[in-house]
């Protein structure tokens, strides 16, 4: 009898909610749907991923706020549900002003899965503050990713990737002339969503390359539309930057305009697998397209240097480096090199020991030069 009553109630709610779902109906249906068995200490109103997915869309819907209760840097920044606000449970009281003022707003808390209590703890706190429409997505972010749903990253995460020279392709999905040309996140490519098919060749050939799409913030759906198109093309590491360009401006200031970007453009340095290295491909791009953006230091002996080296390099033999370390230039990354990677690696390690504030790399490669300046270079594994 209990089973039949449950089926009847579900049918009744489905009939009542045949029109576009309002928050009350959708919450009731979600609560009646099969969920994981409740654990001690859980909040009572549990929803599933399908329920959350109806609200985790761009542009962000009115009257609902998804909240990620996990730590910021380790969890939220590198991956979260789109449109989610980050209020770590450990800092809930400190950031309570971030909650919407309307106490009837649908709040959906989540954290790191069925064993994580942070979202439940935060939900109870919100209820005590007078919020009347609180839910918990108990399966949380691991379930979201497992289901193959689109994930988002934060603006600080993008900045960190840039600072570390991590491989990534950042794409601005906004109109080029009206938006991108007037200011964009540094290093971003312009692929307007309305012209995605026309410029799809700008995407990397490697379908495993990390792609990050952004547009004009939580009120803009261009980035999520473009991200979905990239997934259909077979790209496997696609994320949206939900907060978009407005958040970049708020945190780091206005980005370059197209005119400035053309004048200042320089290839990004890509770090190699071994700590401190620059990949050969990255080095050759920089050396060819923007040699003035780096300092090249040859740490071989003077006679080796005289027999052939990279154009524009200066000679600072490794056995003199420690005494002359204060002479090293600042303001640009330094790339040390030799003929096989041993001495250049030692130079990098020495500088990081004595002057870690300097940004240094080294080429771990077999290099041979001719007197005319041509060279061959083979990266070591």
From TrEMBL:
Keywords: Signal
Record bears the keyword Ribonucleoprotein: no
PROSITE patterns assigned to the protein according to its UniProt record, in alphabetical order: RHODANESE_3
Pfam families: Rhodanese
InterPro entries membership: GlpE_sulfurtransferase (IPR050229), Rhodanese-like_dom (IPR001763), Rhodanese-like_dom_sf (IPR036873)
Superkingdom of the source species: Bacteria
Gene3D superfamilies: Rhodanese-like domain
Segment forming the signal sequence: 1-30
Rhodanese domain location: 60-153, 164-257, 290-378
Protein name according to UniProt: Rhodanese-like domain-containing protein
